[in-house]
Write a structure and sequence with these properties.
Blueprint: H1 2-39, E1 42-43, H2 45-48, E2 50-56, H3 63-74, E3 79-82, E4 88-93, H4 103-107, E5 115-122, H5 124-152, H6 155-179, E6 182-183, H7 185-215, H8 221-253, H9 256-278, H10 282-286, H11 301-305
Parallel strand pairs: 1-6
Antiparallel strand pairs: 2-4, 2-5, 3-4
Length: about 300
């Protein structure tokens, strides 16, 4: 009797925790949508167009010796990133198609010698095409995922996994809108990676839910969902934990170039693990999913024969 009471309390607490997580996820999702709508994104040069140049200067010069001068000359916030080689820097700044600035003219105003190793220019029109192609890539990914989930799961579980995917992407984008961090092609790649990672977590739990529902036609949906979460918790914790450690190392040691990519992945991993419980299985339960929906249909052969 004591074991039954402990089991019942555990299930009640887990159900309450799921509902609390769902409320938090819904709040974060709505707040992220508002931030995206109000603040927008700080588009990087990959999308707006601009100049990227790799330069060689004296090895004794540091960031504070270079960036303030370039900011003053170009009248904008110039990105100056240290390269892997000593004395080499990557300079990035925006410019319009109507006003093209010569690199030699810019660097000639600096009080030290600058050697241009290489440079590239991204036009504003090309940047706009990248915005459109990036949006299409995310939409195509969501569409193909929806088709896959619809074929694999009952529609309630499929919808839960799809909404969980959408929530993860929106929250990651909401953070970048809030902080106004640069959004470039590297961040877009991280967002697409988050889609795949979140889908993996949602499918693992949804698979377990389906198995338990099929094996227990008379079971209670809440209790079976809780059992599915318990059965997959250790696996999810180990997978997410090891991946998070790896990405965190990339964040700490990868330098400024990969910082945004690592931040997006870290947040995406946490959100993907969270949403697989808060949305992936909680939303189907709110929509009335039950073991009866996963039982094979019994066919009356005699009736069909007639």
């Amino acid at each position: 009797m004591t074991n039954l009471k402990i089991s019942a309390i555990s299930d009640n607490r887990l159900t309450a925790a799921r509902l609390t997580m769902t409320a938090i996820s819904t709040t974060l999702f709505l707040v992220s949508l508002v931030l995206i709508g109000l603040k927008g994104f700080n588009w990087g040069l990959d999308f707006t167009g601009g100049v990227v140049a790799e330069i060689q200067v004296h090895s004794n010069l540091i960031l504070e010796d270079i960036k303030p001068l370039l900011d003053q000359i170009l009248i904008q916030d110039v990105q100056v990133i240290s390269s892997s080689e000593t004395g080499q820097w990557i300079v990035r700044f925006s410019q319009s198609d109507k006003h093209v600035v010569e690199l030699n003219e810019i660097f000639s105003h600096l009080p030290f010698t600058v050697e241009i190793i290489n440079s590239s220019v991204v036009g504003a029109q090309v940047g706009q095409e990248m915005v459109e192609q990036g949006g299409l890539a995310i939409m195509a990914c969501l569409l193909l995922t929806m088709i896959y989930l619809s074929c694999r799961f009952e529609w309630r579980l499929a919808l839960g996994a799809l909404v969980a995917l959408l929530q993860d992407v929106v929250i990651v984008l909401g953070l970048f809108a809030l902080m106004q961090w640069e959004f470039n092609l590297t961040i877009l790649a991280a967002v697409l990676a988050v889609l795949g990672y979140s889908l993996n977590d949602s499918i693992v739990i949804a698979d377990r839910v389906r198995e338990l529902f099929r094996a227990n036609p008379n079971g209670q949906a809440d209790l079976l969902i809780n059992d599915a979460i318990r059965a997959t918790f250790s696996r999810t914790l180990v997978t997410s934990g090891t991946t998070l450690v790896t990405v965190s190392s990339l964040w700490l040691l990868g330098g400024a170039t990969l910082e945004g990519f690592a931040v997006a992945l870290c947040l995406g991993i946490v959100c993907g693990t969270w949403s697989s419980v808060s949305v992936g299985v909680s939303l189907p339960k709110l929509l009335g999913v039950a073991p009866i929906h996963f039982q094979p249909q019994i066919v009356d052969l005699e009736e069909n024969a007639l």
